[in-house]
Amino acid sequence: MKTAYTHDADQLERKVCAVICQSDGLKARDIASRLKLDRSAVNHVLYASPLLKELCWQDGDYRWHGIIRQERPHAGLFEFCGYYGSAAEFMDLTENEWLDRLIEGCQRIGRSVSDARGLYHSFRDCRACMVRLFEDLLDMAGDRCLKWEIAFEFRLKRARRVRIYADVLVITEDRVFSLEFKMKDVIEPEDAAQAAKYCPYLEIVFGPEYEVLPALVLTGAREFFDFTSVGKTGFLLPVCSGDMLFNVFDEYLGFLNET
C-alpha cells in the first residue's frame, strides 16, 4: 500500500531552493559548486522557475536569499499565510481572535475574504477540527505537539494557471501534513486529487528534510477514517472526518502504538 506521496519532478528546483533557503546568501556559482552542477543549469532554474521567483530573491551583490527559512521555526512562512504560528499560540486564541487575525492575514496576502458563500463559517468549521485535533494530540503525545507550527490559508503562485492553495499545514519535527478541508460527507475523486496535487510544490518550499503528507478532511462526516486512491497513481490518500483527524497523524507518527 503506497501511503507516502512522492514526486520525482522538479527535483532540481527542490535542491536549488534548499541550498538557498538554508544559507545566508549565495551566488549562482556557489550554488552550482555545492550541488556539483553546471552553473548554466543552476541559472536556468533561478531565472526560469516561477516558484523560485516567489521563494527567493537576489540582492545587489547577486547573492540569492530564501524568503522561507528551511528550519524551525520557518521564518518567512508568515508572508504566504493567512495565519501562521505555533500550535501553542493557536490554541491560546479565542475563535474570534483567531478569525480576526486570519481575515487580516488573508487580506495581506491577497486572498479574497468575501463571506457571500459562507466563507467565515467554513473557516470556523476548519478551526474547530484543528482545536479538537490538538486536544486529542495532547492526550496521545503530550505537550511536544504544542511546539509544532500551524498555517492556515497558505497561498503560493506556481505559474499563471497553477496555484498552491493549502487549507491547513501542520509542521512537525520532520513532516508537513497538508490538510484539504471539504464540508462534505462523501469522498469525491476531484477532492482527493486536489488534496494530493500540492505535495511536489510543498516539497520545494520545505526542503529535503521534510516529508510532505496530504490528507482530505470531510467535516460533514462523523467517525470516519479510510484511504482512497488518487487517480491512477497508486497512491492511497488518507481521508477522515473532522473528529477522526488524529488518526491521520497516528498513521505516520504512531502515537497509539506508544501507549
Description:
With 259 residues, the protein is an alpha+beta fold. The protein folds into two domains: 11-66, Winged helix-like DNA-binding domain superfamily/Winged helix DNA-binding domain (Arc Repressor Mutant, subunit A, Orthogonal Bundle); 77-258, no CATH class. 42% of the residues lie in helices and 23% in strands. It has helices spanning 11-21, 28-35, 39-48, 50-55, 87-92, 95-109, 119-141, 189-197, 199-206, 246-253, 255-258, and strands spanning 56-58, 64-66, 81-86, 149-159, 162-171, 175-182, 211-218, 225-229, 236-241. A hairpin with a 5-residue loop joins strand 1 and strand 2 (64-66). The model has no long low-confidence stretch (mean pLDDT 90).
List the helices and strands and how they pair.
Elements: H1 11-21, H2 28-35, H3 39-48, H4 50-55, E1 56-58, E2 64-66, E3 81-86, H5 87-92, H6 95-109, H7 119-141, E4 149-159, E5 162-171, E6 175-182, H8 189-197, H9 199-206, E7 211-218, E8 225-229, E9 236-241, H10 246-253, H11 255-258
Parallel strand pairs: 6-7, 7-9
Antiparallel strand pairs: 1-2, 3-4, 4-5, 5-6, 8-9
> Domains counted in the coordinates: how many?
2
Cα separation of the termini = 25 Å
Number of helices: 11
Note the beta-strand portion.
15-25%
- Count of DSSP strands: 9
Name the structural class.
alpha+beta
Helix content: 40-55%
Strand order of the biggest β-sheet: 3-4-5-6-7-9-8
Give the oligomer, counting copies of the same chain as homo and different chains as hetero: single chain
**Backbone shape:** globular
Low-confidence stretches: none
Q: Mind summarizing the main beta sheet? A: 7 strands, mixed
Helix-strand string = HHHHEEEHHHEEEHHEEEHH
How much is the average pLDDT? 90
Radius of gyration: 19 Å
